[in-house]
Predict the 3D structure of the following.
Amino acid sequence: MDYSQFLSMQQEVSLLAVILLVFLADLFTCGRLERGEACALSEANGSTCGCRFRTFFPMVLLVLHTVLNLLPWCCEGCAQVCSGKEAFGGMYQSTPMMTIVKSVLNVGTVVVFLMAGNWLKRAENRIKENEFHLLVLFTLLGMYFMISSGHFLMFFIGLELASIPMTALVAYDKQRYESAEAGAKYILMALFSSALLLYGLSLIYGAAGTLYFDALPEKVSFSWLTVLGMLLFISGMGFKISLVPFHLWTADTYEGAPTVVTGYLSVISKGAAAFVLFTVLVKIFGAVDFVGVWNEAFFWLIIASITIANLFAIRQKNLKRFMAFSAISQAGYLVLGVMDGTAQGMTALVFYLLVYMAANLGAFAVMNVVEQNCGKIGLDDYDGLYQTNPKLAFLMTLCLFSLAGIPPFAGFFSKFFIFMAAFNAGHHLLVFIALVNTVISLYYYLLIVKAMYIKKSDAPIAAFRSDCGTRLALLICLAGVILFGLAGCIYSYIDSFSYGLK
Amino acid sequence: MIQLEYVLIISAVMMFAGVYGFLTRRSTLAILLSIELMLNSTDINFAVFNRMLHPEGHEGYFFALFSIAISAAESAVAIAIMINIYRMLKNISVDKLEKMKW
């Protein structure tokens, strides 16, 4: 066996090294059984060194990993690297675009870790602090493999590696009933969807006789068997992205999961799944007959997702549940980039993911810090937030404006690009319906802004100082929300690596 | 020799019995069993397609092996969560998992 193949999967190897180091560090720091108490004691004595180390070590390693792998190493002379590389007989494939998506996921995970610091310091989470870091990193590794897969087996293993630890994360608050219920709903739906997806894959295997992405396009012919396989595949991925007929788990899971995990779930895992859906469909089902079928399917899925999620979002009283429906409708916009599988669509999808990550994680960071400080998550609890915590209210407003797509912010540009991609592909009616829905979404995002700025409350959330981690996370998100839209070079940089059917 | 169609019919019946069970059963353990039925039907599919249609490679067998291992891991996590719920509610019927809805 040629071990140098491992070098071509540098990001996976680097992340694996991070995971191993975090794991070993967890073994050797605060080695006593009652680690939680040990930390509390040492903190009381003023010597917090070991416990600080436990929080910052995974953080630092992940930042290092992110910076090292930020951009695809692509020079003039090495055209082979630029066009993509393969390892293990085509099982693993990587293109510069995949590197960019992985970097986006990395940055999102860094922000989630920053947000989580305060929550992990609570007494009940002390003992399982590093479990959180490890589980998050494992799901990230799963998404890497899913993104870079060159064979359906690799894809499936990546998918499950991303969703099994995710269940453990959703059910992370062991003593809280809602968390367990959310975990149960999530895993039952995840199992059901992966069973459907597997059945689809088995049909494709029966028709084509191989599952290598490179060999499949020639082998799959247009027949009811392969079309059924493809539709089952799409519905399985629809569960992961939470498009509308498959969205029933979303709101409950998002509400019950710890707020930090909800943020991670709504951005990172959804974004990875949407990108993989795009690449797999373009790579394998690129024939004209197939494109017609999946365009038709996505047409209805997108309309249903955007419209129904918007209507349900209006009547929500719990902010996390509200963000769940907002995330479903955002997923509809995200999948708009998949229509026709154009190169422009891929650029728009990745750019949308980047901007959505900044805005959504920013909103979740605010919600998380408010929940940590006073335990409130209802929409009515946010009445009068501007009087007590003006900075937080302002940041939340910026993030919500970006999510809604109001011009100076990045959200406007990302929505514009994704509409343009779908419009150029010739889906005028779909773009029109999506446009009408942005107005509805503006209404319910403004409901929160109204609660924070205009409504008066007898008992508003008391003023508090947020911790450094949350501030840093908010700073990153704020920079993203403002700069991603204004710096046009980011879009054109992504565009230079995109590929598609046309 | 058994014909391909017969085995495919068995796996399709298993699949849809699993879907039916998933939608109608009230106990979460019965739901897990239904899901196992669905996953196993896909394993049958992979093995049969490999044996009868594409005997030149072993992709289908390997896929079936991996999917058995992965579904076992998923069931383990699912049962762990069920046990956690049972500790709190003394019941694992899905009718009781209704604190969050709409």
Q: What stands out?
A: Chain A has a mean pLDDT of 88. The longest strand of chain A covers residues 85-87.
